[in-house]
Amino acid sequence: MKARWIRGLAAGLIALAAVGLTACGDDDAGGGGSEVTGEITVFAAASLTESFTRIGADFEAANPGTKVTFNFAGSSALATQIGQGAPADVFASAAPANMATVADAGDVDGEAVTFVKNQLVIAVPKGNPKGITGLSDLVGPDVKVALCAEQVPCGAAAKKALQAASVELTPVTFEQDVKSVLSKVTLGEVDAALVYRTDAIAAASDVDGVEFAESAGAINEYPIAVLRNAPNKATARAFVDHVLSDPAKLVLTTAGFQAA
Amino acid sequence: MSADPSAAVSAPVRAPRRRRRAGRVPVALLVPAVLGLLLLVLPLAGLLVRAPWTTLPRRLAEPGVLTALGLSVQTATMATVVCLVLGVPLAWLLARVDFPGKRVVRALVTVPLVLPPVVGGVALLLVFGRKGILGAWLDSAFGITLPFTTAGVVLAEAFVAMPFLVIAVEGALRAADSRYEEAAATLGAGRWTTFTRVTLPLVAPGIAAGAVLCWARALGEFGATITFAGNFPGRTQTMPLAVYLALETDLEAAIVLSLVLLVVSVVILAGLRDRWISSP
Protein backbone atom coordinates (compact mmCIF):
# COMPACT_ATOMS: atom_id res chain seq x y z
CA MET A 1 0.00 0.00 0.00
CA LYS A 2 2.70 2.38 1.09
CA ALA A 3 4.96 1.44 -1.82
CA ARG A 4 2.23 2.11 -4.34
CA TRP A 5 1.57 5.50 -2.75
CA ILE A 6 5.23 6.45 -3.06
CA ARG A 7 5.39 5.20 -6.66
CA GLY A 8 2.35 7.33 -7.49
CA LEU A 9 3.96 10.36 -5.93
CA ALA A 10 7.20 9.78 -7.84
CA ALA A 11 5.33 9.44 -11.14
CA GLY A 12 3.49 12.67 -10.39
CA LEU A 13 6.74 14.49 -9.65
CA ILE A 14 8.36 13.26 -12.87
CA ALA A 15 5.32 14.39 -14.87
CA LEU A 16 5.49 17.78 -13.14
CA ALA A 17 9.21 18.13 -13.92
CA ALA A 18 8.55 17.24 -17.57
CA VAL A 19 5.87 19.92 -17.83
CA GLY A 20 8.22 22.38 -16.18
CA LEU A 21 11.01 21.59 -18.69
CA THR A 22 8.77 22.04 -21.75
CA ALA A 23 7.47 25.28 -20.28
CA CYS A 24 11.05 26.51 -19.87
CA GLY A 25 11.81 25.48 -23.46
CA ASP A 26 8.92 27.59 -24.71
CA ASP A 27 10.13 30.56 -22.74
CA ASP A 28 13.60 30.32 -24.22
CA ALA A 29 12.19 30.21 -27.74
CA GLY A 30 10.13 33.33 -27.09
CA GLY A 31 12.71 35.36 -25.19
CA GLY A 32 15.85 34.51 -27.14
CA GLY A 33 14.68 35.23 -30.68
CA SER A 34 13.25 38.38 -32.19
CA GLU A 35 10.10 36.56 -33.28
CA VAL A 36 6.74 37.84 -32.08
CA THR A 37 5.36 34.71 -30.48
CA GLY A 38 4.71 33.11 -27.11
CA GLU A 39 3.28 34.51 -23.93
CA ILE A 40 3.69 37.97 -22.38
CA THR A 41 2.48 39.32 -19.06
CA VAL A 42 1.20 42.88 -19.00
CA PHE A 43 0.90 44.75 -15.69
CA ALA A 44 -1.72 47.43 -16.25
CA ALA A 45 -3.56 50.01 -14.14
CA ALA A 46 -7.04 48.99 -12.97
CA SER A 47 -8.63 51.79 -15.02
CA LEU A 48 -7.36 50.09 -18.20
CA THR A 49 -9.18 46.81 -17.47
CA GLU A 50 -11.91 47.05 -20.12
CA SER A 51 -9.92 48.62 -22.95
CA PHE A 52 -6.73 46.57 -22.50
CA THR A 53 -8.66 43.30 -22.39
CA ARG A 54 -10.08 44.25 -25.76
CA ILE A 55 -6.71 45.45 -27.13
CA GLY A 56 -5.05 42.24 -25.89
CA ALA A 57 -7.57 40.11 -27.80
CA ASP A 58 -6.99 42.19 -30.96
CA PHE A 59 -3.21 41.76 -30.58
CA GLU A 60 -3.52 37.98 -30.21
CA ALA A 61 -5.73 37.83 -33.32
CA ALA A 62 -3.24 39.89 -35.35
CA ASN A 63 -0.25 37.84 -34.12
CA PRO A 64 -1.10 34.12 -34.09
CA GLY A 65 0.89 32.17 -31.53
CA THR A 66 0.92 34.97 -28.99
CA LYS A 67 -0.88 35.06 -25.67
CA VAL A 68 -1.31 38.17 -23.52
CA THR A 69 -1.94 37.71 -19.82
CA PHE A 70 -2.98 40.75 -17.78
CA ASN A 71 -2.48 41.66 -14.15
CA PHE A 72 -4.79 44.59 -13.43
CA ALA A 73 -4.33 46.42 -10.11
CA GLY A 74 -3.60 49.84 -8.65
CA SER A 75 -0.54 51.38 -10.34
CA SER A 76 1.35 51.71 -7.05
CA ALA A 77 0.74 48.07 -6.13
CA LEU A 78 1.96 47.04 -9.59
CA ALA A 79 5.07 49.21 -9.25
CA THR A 80 5.81 47.54 -5.90
CA GLN A 81 5.33 44.06 -7.40
CA ILE A 82 7.72 44.89 -10.29
CA GLY A 83 10.25 46.25 -7.77
CA GLN A 84 10.04 42.95 -5.88
CA GLY A 85 10.88 40.98 -9.05
CA ALA A 86 7.49 40.03 -10.50
CA PRO A 87 8.00 38.46 -13.97
CA ALA A 88 6.29 41.15 -16.09
CA ASP A 89 6.98 42.10 -19.71
CA VAL A 90 5.08 45.39 -19.96
CA PHE A 91 3.97 48.00 -17.43
CA ALA A 92 1.15 50.46 -18.19
CA SER A 93 0.71 52.92 -15.34
CA ALA A 94 -2.13 55.35 -14.56
CA ALA A 95 0.35 58.01 -13.46
CA PRO A 96 3.91 59.05 -14.37
CA ALA A 97 4.91 58.88 -10.67
CA ASN A 98 4.53 55.10 -10.51
CA MET A 99 6.38 54.65 -13.81
CA ALA A 100 9.14 56.87 -12.39
CA THR A 101 9.41 54.54 -9.36
CA VAL A 102 9.99 51.61 -11.69
CA ALA A 103 12.35 53.54 -13.97
CA ASP A 104 14.40 54.86 -11.02
CA ALA A 105 14.93 51.27 -9.88
CA GLY A 106 16.41 50.57 -13.33
CA ASP A 107 13.59 48.22 -14.33
CA VAL A 108 12.48 49.99 -17.54
CA ASP A 109 13.92 48.96 -20.90
CA GLY A 110 14.38 52.13 -22.97
CA GLU A 111 11.96 55.01 -22.36
CA ALA A 112 8.36 55.05 -21.20
CA VAL A 113 5.87 56.58 -23.67
CA THR A 114 2.64 58.38 -22.77
CA PHE A 115 -0.15 56.67 -24.71
CA VAL A 116 -3.37 58.23 -23.32
CA LYS A 117 -4.65 60.83 -20.87
CA ASN A 118 -7.56 60.59 -18.49
CA GLN A 119 -9.61 63.39 -16.98
CA LEU A 120 -11.74 63.61 -13.87
CA VAL A 121 -15.52 64.02 -13.89
CA ILE A 122 -18.04 64.26 -11.06
CA ALA A 123 -19.90 60.96 -10.86
CA VAL A 124 -23.47 61.34 -9.57
CA PRO A 125 -26.31 58.82 -9.26
CA LYS A 126 -28.31 58.35 -12.49
CA GLY A 127 -30.49 61.39 -13.15
CA ASN A 128 -28.35 63.68 -10.95
CA PRO A 129 -30.91 63.99 -8.08
CA LYS A 130 -28.95 66.75 -6.32
CA GLY A 131 -28.57 68.80 -9.50
CA ILE A 132 -24.78 69.01 -9.31
CA THR A 133 -23.16 71.07 -12.07
CA GLY A 134 -19.68 71.84 -10.77
CA LEU A 135 -17.17 71.43 -7.94
CA SER A 136 -18.68 74.27 -5.86
CA ASP A 137 -21.95 72.28 -5.60
CA LEU A 138 -20.08 69.57 -3.68
CA VAL A 139 -19.56 71.76 -0.60
CA GLY A 140 -22.22 71.72 2.08
CA PRO A 141 -23.54 69.51 4.85
CA ASP A 142 -26.23 67.80 2.77
CA VAL A 143 -23.90 66.56 0.04
CA LYS A 144 -21.87 63.45 0.82
CA VAL A 145 -18.76 63.13 -1.33
CA ALA A 146 -16.28 60.27 -1.79
CA LEU A 147 -12.73 60.91 -3.01
CA CYS A 148 -9.72 58.72 -3.73
CA ALA A 149 -7.02 58.84 -1.08
CA GLU A 150 -4.20 61.26 -1.93
CA GLN A 151 -1.74 58.34 -2.10
CA VAL A 152 -3.34 56.94 -5.28
CA PRO A 153 -3.29 58.74 -8.68
CA CYS A 154 -7.01 59.59 -8.80
CA GLY A 155 -6.78 61.16 -5.33
CA ALA A 156 -3.77 63.25 -6.29
CA ALA A 157 -5.63 64.45 -9.38
CA ALA A 158 -8.76 65.24 -7.32
CA LYS A 159 -6.70 67.29 -4.88
CA LYS A 160 -5.15 69.23 -7.74
CA ALA A 161 -8.52 69.94 -9.35
CA LEU A 162 -10.06 71.09 -6.06
CA GLN A 163 -7.11 73.38 -5.43
CA ALA A 164 -7.39 74.80 -8.96
CA ALA A 165 -11.06 75.58 -8.25
CA SER A 166 -10.28 76.91 -4.72
CA VAL A 167 -12.94 74.57 -3.35
CA GLU A 168 -12.41 73.28 0.18
CA LEU A 169 -14.15 70.00 0.53
CA THR A 170 -14.49 67.50 3.40
CA PRO A 171 -15.42 64.14 1.93
CA VAL A 172 -16.95 61.36 4.06
CA THR A 173 -14.28 58.95 2.89
CA PHE A 174 -10.91 58.67 1.14
CA GLU A 175 -11.15 55.37 -0.77
CA GLN A 176 -8.21 53.16 -1.72
CA ASP A 177 -8.92 53.16 -5.48
CA VAL A 178 -11.17 54.71 -8.08
CA LYS A 179 -13.40 51.65 -8.46
CA SER A 180 -14.25 51.72 -4.72
CA VAL A 181 -15.14 55.40 -5.02
CA LEU A 182 -17.40 54.60 -7.93
CA SER A 183 -19.10 51.74 -6.05
CA LYS A 184 -20.03 54.17 -3.25
CA VAL A 185 -21.98 56.16 -5.86
CA THR A 186 -23.61 53.13 -7.51
CA LEU A 187 -24.66 51.83 -4.07
CA GLY A 188 -26.17 55.24 -3.28
CA GLU A 189 -24.00 55.80 -0.19
CA VAL A 190 -22.68 59.14 -1.43
CA ASP A 191 -24.21 61.89 -3.56
CA ALA A 192 -21.14 62.57 -5.66
CA ALA A 193 -17.56 61.44 -6.25
CA LEU A 194 -14.59 62.44 -8.35
CA VAL A 195 -13.67 59.62 -10.74
CA TYR A 196 -12.05 59.29 -14.14
CA ARG A 197 -14.25 59.93 -17.14
CA THR A 198 -13.52 56.36 -18.30
CA ASP A 199 -14.90 54.93 -15.05
CA ALA A 200 -18.07 57.01 -15.31
CA ILE A 201 -18.56 55.79 -18.89
CA ALA A 202 -17.95 52.16 -17.88
CA ALA A 203 -20.66 52.51 -15.20
CA ALA A 204 -23.02 54.54 -17.40
CA SER A 205 -26.02 52.40 -16.48
CA ASP A 206 -25.80 53.51 -12.83
CA VAL A 207 -24.08 56.89 -12.82
CA ASP A 208 -23.93 60.11 -14.79
CA GLY A 209 -20.64 61.94 -15.34
CA VAL A 210 -20.67 65.71 -14.86
CA GLU A 211 -17.78 67.44 -16.64
CA PHE A 212 -16.19 70.42 -14.91
CA ALA A 213 -13.77 73.05 -16.18
CA GLU A 214 -11.05 72.63 -13.53
CA SER A 215 -10.43 68.99 -14.52
CA ALA A 216 -8.29 70.33 -17.37
CA GLY A 217 -5.73 71.33 -14.73
CA ALA A 218 -5.49 67.79 -13.36
CA ILE A 219 -5.07 65.52 -16.34
CA ASN A 220 -3.49 62.14 -15.72
CA GLU A 221 -0.99 60.86 -18.24
CA TYR A 222 -0.68 57.11 -18.74
CA PRO A 223 2.86 55.90 -19.61
CA ILE A 224 3.67 52.44 -20.98
CA ALA A 225 7.06 50.70 -21.16
CA VAL A 226 8.77 47.38 -21.82
CA LEU A 227 10.51 46.12 -18.68
CA ARG A 228 14.21 45.36 -18.44
CA ASN A 229 13.71 41.84 -17.11
CA ALA A 230 10.94 41.01 -19.59
CA PRO A 231 11.06 37.26 -20.31
CA ASN A 232 9.75 37.88 -23.87
CA LYS A 233 11.02 41.27 -25.05
CA ALA A 234 10.26 40.95 -28.78
CA THR A 235 6.59 40.27 -28.20
CA ALA A 236 6.47 42.87 -25.42
CA ARG A 237 7.75 45.53 -27.84
CA ALA A 238 5.25 44.45 -30.47
CA PHE A 239 2.46 44.80 -27.88
CA VAL A 240 3.55 48.32 -26.90
CA ASP A 241 3.66 49.27 -30.62
CA HIS A 242 0.16 47.85 -30.99
CA VAL A 243 -1.10 49.96 -28.04
CA LEU A 244 0.30 53.06 -29.79
CA SER A 245 -1.36 52.12 -33.12
CA ASP A 246 -4.55 53.70 -34.47
CA PRO A 247 -6.91 50.72 -33.95
CA ALA A 248 -5.92 50.54 -30.27
CA LYS A 249 -6.28 54.30 -29.91
CA LEU A 250 -9.85 54.00 -31.16
CA VAL A 251 -10.60 51.41 -28.46
CA LEU A 252 -9.12 53.72 -25.82
CA THR A 253 -10.90 56.90 -26.94
CA THR A 254 -14.21 55.02 -27.16
CA ALA A 255 -13.70 54.08 -23.51
CA GLY A 256 -13.37 57.79 -22.66
CA PHE A 257 -9.59 58.30 -22.72
CA GLN A 258 -8.08 61.26 -24.55
CA ALA A 259 -5.40 60.71 -27.16
CA ALA A 260 -1.96 61.63 -25.82
CA MET B 1 -4.15 28.99 43.97
CA SER B 2 -2.93 29.55 47.51
CA ALA B 3 -5.98 27.71 48.87
CA ASP B 4 -4.52 24.46 47.59
CA PRO B 5 -0.83 24.28 48.60
CA SER B 6 -0.40 20.69 47.41
CA ALA B 7 -1.08 21.72 43.83
CA ALA B 8 1.53 24.48 43.99
CA VAL B 9 4.13 22.06 45.35
CA SER B 10 3.43 19.18 42.99
CA ALA B 11 3.26 21.25 39.82
CA PRO B 12 7.00 21.75 39.21
CA VAL B 13 7.65 18.08 40.01
CA ARG B 14 4.96 16.77 37.68
CA ALA B 15 6.02 18.73 34.63
CA PRO B 16 9.44 17.12 33.99
CA ARG B 17 8.08 13.65 34.71
CA ARG B 18 5.45 14.05 32.05
CA ARG B 19 8.10 15.13 29.56
CA ARG B 20 10.20 12.03 30.26
CA ARG B 21 7.21 9.72 29.88
CA ALA B 22 6.42 11.17 26.46
CA GLY B 23 9.71 9.79 25.07
CA ARG B 24 11.30 10.89 21.81
CA VAL B 25 9.32 13.31 19.65
CA PRO B 26 8.44 11.55 16.36
CA VAL B 27 10.24 13.16 13.41
CA ALA B 28 7.04 12.89 11.36
CA LEU B 29 5.43 15.33 13.80
CA LEU B 30 8.44 17.48 14.61
CA VAL B 31 9.36 18.41 11.01
CA PRO B 32 5.93 19.68 9.94
CA ALA B 33 5.51 21.39 13.31
CA VAL B 34 8.74 23.33 12.88
CA LEU B 35 7.92 24.13 9.23
CA GLY B 36 4.49 25.36 10.34
CA LEU B 37 6.06 27.56 12.99
CA LEU B 38 8.50 28.97 10.41
CA LEU B 39 5.64 29.74 8.03
CA LEU B 40 3.96 31.76 10.78
CA VAL B 41 7.05 33.45 12.18
CA LEU B 42 9.24 34.12 9.13
CA PRO B 43 7.02 36.86 7.63
CA LEU B 44 7.10 38.65 11.00
CA ALA B 45 10.89 38.31 11.03
CA GLY B 46 10.87 39.80 7.53
CA LEU B 47 9.06 42.86 8.86
CA LEU B 48 11.58 43.22 11.68
CA VAL B 49 14.55 42.87 9.31
CA ARG B 50 13.23 45.45 6.85
CA ALA B 51 12.06 47.92 9.53
CA PRO B 52 13.73 51.34 9.23
CA TRP B 53 15.02 51.37 12.80
CA THR B 54 16.93 54.66 12.49
CA THR B 55 13.91 56.72 11.43
CA LEU B 56 11.50 54.76 13.65
CA PRO B 57 11.08 57.37 16.43
CA ARG B 58 10.41 60.17 13.94
CA ARG B 59 7.84 58.11 12.04
CA LEU B 60 6.08 57.05 15.23
CA ALA B 61 5.76 60.68 16.30
CA GLU B 62 3.70 61.51 13.21
CA PRO B 63 0.25 62.59 14.39
CA GLY B 64 -1.72 60.17 12.19
CA VAL B 65 -0.15 57.10 13.77
CA LEU B 66 -1.46 57.52 17.30
CA THR B 67 -4.89 58.58 16.03
CA ALA B 68 -5.23 55.43 13.93
CA LEU B 69 -3.89 53.23 16.74
CA GLY B 70 -6.25 54.77 19.30
CA LEU B 71 -9.21 54.33 16.99
CA SER B 72 -8.23 50.71 16.30
CA VAL B 73 -7.96 49.76 19.98
CA GLN B 74 -11.17 51.62 20.80
CA THR B 75 -13.29 50.12 17.99
CA ALA B 76 -11.90 46.59 18.47
CA THR B 77 -12.79 46.78 22.18
CA MET B 78 -16.29 48.07 21.47
CA ALA B 79 -16.79 45.39 18.82
CA THR B 80 -15.71 42.75 21.36
CA VAL B 81 -18.28 44.08 23.86
CA VAL B 82 -20.98 43.86 21.18
CA CYS B 83 -19.86 40.32 20.35
CA LEU B 84 -19.94 39.31 24.04
CA VAL B 85 -23.43 40.72 24.61
CA LEU B 86 -24.87 39.07 21.49
CA GLY B 87 -22.51 36.15 20.91
CA VAL B 88 -22.54 34.44 24.33
CA PRO B 89 -26.36 34.01 24.32
CA LEU B 90 -26.13 32.79 20.71
CA ALA B 91 -23.49 30.23 21.66
CA TRP B 92 -25.64 29.12 24.62
CA LEU B 93 -28.62 28.69 22.29
CA LEU B 94 -26.57 26.53 19.94
CA ALA B 95 -25.08 24.41 22.72
CA ARG B 96 -28.04 23.96 25.08
CA VAL B 97 -31.32 24.30 23.19
CA ASP B 98 -32.65 21.93 20.55
CA PHE B 99 -34.56 23.65 17.81
CA PRO B 100 -35.32 22.86 14.16
CA GLY B 101 -32.77 24.06 11.65
CA LYS B 102 -29.99 24.22 14.24
CA ARG B 103 -27.39 22.82 11.82
CA VAL B 104 -28.24 25.54 9.33
CA VAL B 105 -28.02 28.23 11.99
CA ARG B 106 -24.62 26.95 13.10
CA ALA B 107 -23.39 26.99 9.50
CA LEU B 108 -24.72 30.52 9.03
CA VAL B 109 -22.88 31.72 12.13
CA THR B 110 -19.58 30.68 10.57
CA VAL B 111 -20.25 32.33 7.20
CA PRO B 112 -18.29 35.52 8.01
CA LEU B 113 -15.22 33.27 8.53
CA VAL B 114 -15.18 32.21 4.88
CA LEU B 115 -16.78 35.24 3.26
CA PRO B 116 -14.19 37.62 1.79
CA PRO B 117 -14.44 40.59 4.19
CA VAL B 118 -14.87 43.01 1.27
CA VAL B 119 -18.02 41.10 0.28
CA GLY B 120 -19.10 41.26 3.92
CA GLY B 121 -18.71 45.03 3.73
CA VAL B 122 -20.85 45.25 0.59
CA ALA B 123 -23.46 43.00 2.25
CA LEU B 124 -23.49 45.33 5.27
CA LEU B 125 -24.02 48.30 2.93
CA LEU B 126 -26.96 46.52 1.28
CA VAL B 127 -28.60 46.16 4.70
CA PHE B 128 -27.38 49.10 6.81
CA GLY B 129 -26.41 51.52 4.01
CA ARG B 130 -28.33 54.67 3.21
CA LYS B 131 -30.35 52.79 0.58
CA GLY B 132 -30.20 49.50 2.54
CA ILE B 133 -33.14 47.45 3.79
CA LEU B 134 -32.73 48.56 7.42
CA GLY B 135 -30.50 51.54 6.77
CA ALA B 136 -33.12 53.47 4.78
CA TRP B 137 -35.56 53.05 7.69
CA LEU B 138 -32.95 54.02 10.30
CA ASP B 139 -32.21 57.13 8.28
CA SER B 140 -35.80 58.27 7.77
CA ALA B 141 -37.06 57.35 11.27
CA PHE B 142 -34.11 58.38 13.44
CA GLY B 143 -31.73 60.19 11.12
CA ILE B 144 -29.08 57.56 11.83
CA THR B 145 -26.63 56.62 9.07
CA LEU B 146 -23.99 54.02 9.85
CA PRO B 147 -21.64 54.07 6.83
CA PHE B 148 -18.63 56.40 7.21
CA THR B 149 -19.05 56.56 11.02
CA THR B 150 -17.09 55.05 13.91
CA ALA B 151 -20.22 53.06 14.80
CA GLY B 152 -20.01 51.63 11.29
CA VAL B 153 -16.44 50.47 11.97
CA VAL B 154 -17.62 48.72 15.15
CA LEU B 155 -20.46 47.05 13.25
CA ALA B 156 -18.15 45.82 10.48
CA GLU B 157 -15.61 44.49 13.00
CA ALA B 158 -18.33 42.77 15.06
CA PHE B 159 -19.70 41.12 11.92
CA VAL B 160 -16.33 39.65 11.04
CA ALA B 161 -15.17 38.79 14.58
CA MET B 162 -18.31 37.38 16.22
CA PRO B 163 -17.96 33.84 14.78
CA PHE B 164 -14.64 33.45 16.64
CA LEU B 165 -16.36 34.19 19.94
CA VAL B 166 -19.43 32.04 19.24
CA ILE B 167 -17.36 29.02 18.20
CA ALA B 168 -15.05 29.31 21.21
CA VAL B 169 -17.90 29.74 23.72
CA GLU B 170 -20.03 26.99 22.17
CA GLY B 171 -17.06 24.63 22.37
CA ALA B 172 -16.53 25.53 26.01
CA LEU B 173 -20.23 24.99 26.76
CA ARG B 174 -20.22 21.56 25.11
CA ALA B 175 -17.09 20.54 27.02
CA ALA B 176 -18.46 21.80 30.36
CA ASP B 177 -19.98 19.24 32.71
CA SER B 178 -23.73 19.72 32.32
CA ARG B 179 -24.41 17.86 35.61
CA TYR B 180 -23.79 21.12 37.51
CA GLU B 181 -26.56 22.75 35.54
CA GLU B 182 -28.83 19.76 36.10
CA ALA B 183 -28.10 19.89 39.82
CA ALA B 184 -28.98 23.60 39.88
CA ALA B 185 -32.21 22.85 38.04
CA THR B 186 -33.21 20.07 40.50
CA LEU B 187 -32.55 22.52 43.33
CA GLY B 188 -35.16 24.82 41.83
CA ALA B 189 -33.09 27.30 39.82
CA GLY B 190 -34.70 28.60 36.64
CA ARG B 191 -32.84 28.58 33.31
CA TRP B 192 -31.78 32.23 33.66
CA THR B 193 -30.48 31.75 37.19
CA THR B 194 -28.68 28.58 36.12
CA PHE B 195 -27.13 30.44 33.21
CA THR B 196 -25.87 33.40 35.24
CA ARG B 197 -24.90 31.56 38.46
CA VAL B 198 -23.64 28.21 37.15
CA THR B 199 -23.02 28.17 33.40
CA LEU B 200 -21.26 31.52 33.01
CA PRO B 201 -18.69 30.98 35.81
CA LEU B 202 -18.13 27.45 34.51
CA VAL B 203 -17.22 28.55 30.98
CA ALA B 204 -15.60 31.88 31.90
CA PRO B 205 -12.15 30.78 30.61
CA GLY B 206 -13.73 29.77 27.31
CA ILE B 207 -15.50 33.12 27.04
CA ALA B 208 -12.25 34.93 27.81
CA ALA B 209 -10.41 32.93 25.15
CA GLY B 210 -13.15 33.68 22.64
CA ALA B 211 -13.14 37.38 23.54
CA VAL B 212 -9.37 37.58 23.03
CA LEU B 213 -9.59 35.91 19.60
CA CYS B 214 -12.52 38.15 18.72
CA TRP B 215 -10.61 41.28 19.78
CA ALA B 216 -7.55 40.27 17.80
CA ARG B 217 -9.60 39.60 14.68
CA ALA B 218 -11.40 42.94 15.07
CA LEU B 219 -8.09 44.75 15.51
CA GLY B 220 -6.77 43.44 12.19
CA GLU B 221 -10.04 43.90 10.29
CA PHE B 222 -9.56 45.61 6.94
CA GLY B 223 -11.86 44.61 4.07
CA ALA B 224 -15.30 44.95 5.64
CA THR B 225 -14.24 48.15 7.43
CA ILE B 226 -12.95 50.02 4.38
CA THR B 227 -15.92 48.88 2.29
CA PHE B 228 -18.65 49.64 4.82
CA ALA B 229 -17.21 52.47 6.89
CA GLY B 230 -14.87 54.05 4.36
CA ASN B 231 -11.58 55.67 5.24
CA PHE B 232 -11.46 59.01 7.06
CA PRO B 233 -8.64 59.88 9.49
CA GLY B 234 -9.79 59.99 13.12
CA ARG B 235 -13.25 58.67 12.34
CA THR B 236 -12.98 55.41 10.41
CA GLN B 237 -9.28 55.08 9.52
CA THR B 238 -8.10 52.20 11.69
CA MET B 239 -4.50 50.93 11.71
CA PRO B 240 -4.94 48.30 8.96
CA LEU B 241 -6.44 50.97 6.66
CA ALA B 242 -3.58 53.34 7.42
CA VAL B 243 -1.12 50.52 6.65
CA TYR B 244 -2.78 49.76 3.32
CA LEU B 245 -2.72 53.38 2.19
CA ALA B 246 0.85 53.89 3.39
CA LEU B 247 1.78 50.89 1.25
CA GLU B 248 0.66 52.83 -1.84
CA THR B 249 3.48 55.32 -1.51
CA ASP B 250 5.84 54.39 1.29
CA LEU B 251 6.76 50.78 2.07
CA GLU B 252 8.78 51.76 5.16
CA ALA B 253 5.90 53.74 6.69
CA ALA B 254 3.64 50.72 6.16
CA ILE B 255 6.18 48.47 7.91
CA VAL B 256 6.44 50.86 10.86
CA LEU B 257 2.65 51.01 11.25
CA SER B 258 2.42 47.22 11.03
CA LEU B 259 5.10 46.86 13.70
CA VAL B 260 3.16 49.14 16.04
CA LEU B 261 0.01 47.08 15.54
CA LEU B 262 2.02 43.90 16.02
CA VAL B 263 3.67 45.02 19.25
CA VAL B 264 0.42 46.33 20.76
CA SER B 265 -1.48 43.14 19.94
CA VAL B 266 1.27 40.80 21.12
CA VAL B 267 1.64 42.70 24.41
CA ILE B 268 -2.09 42.72 25.07
CA LEU B 269 -2.69 39.12 23.97
CA ALA B 270 0.27 37.78 25.95
CA GLY B 271 -0.86 39.74 29.00
CA LEU B 272 -4.42 38.49 28.75
CA ARG B 273 -3.47 34.88 28.17
CA ASP B 274 -1.46 34.68 31.36
CA ARG B 275 -4.06 36.39 33.47
CA TRP B 276 -7.35 35.07 32.14
CA ILE B 277 -6.82 31.82 30.38
CA SER B 278 -5.57 28.92 32.43
CA SER B 279 -3.60 26.82 30.01
CA PRO B 280 -3.90 23.22 31.13
What does this structure look like?
The complex is a heterodimer of chains A (260) and B (280). Chain A has 260 residues and is of the alpha/beta class. Chain A has two domains: 120 residues, D-Maltodextrin-Binding Protein, domain 2 (3-Layer(aba) Sandwich), CATH 3.40.190.10; 98 residues, D-Maltodextrin-Binding Protein, domain 2. In chain A, 42% of the residues lie in helices and 24% in strands. In chain A, helix 3 runs parallel beside helix 4. The longest helix of chain A is centred in the first third of the chain and has 31 residues. Chain B is mainly alpha-helical. Chain B has a domain of 161 residues: MetI-like fold (Orthogonal Bundle), CATH 1.10.3720.10. Helix content of chain B is 78%, strand content 0%. The longest helix of chain B is centred in the first third of the chain and has 34 residues. Chain B is globular. The two termini of chain B are 14 Å apart. The N terminus of chain B is likely disordered. At the A-B interface, helix 3, strand 7 and helix 6 of A face helix 7 and helix 13 of B. Chain B: One of its GO terms (molecular function) is molybdate ion transmembrane transporter activity. Chain B: Belongs to the binding-protein-dependent transport system permease family. CysTW subfamily.
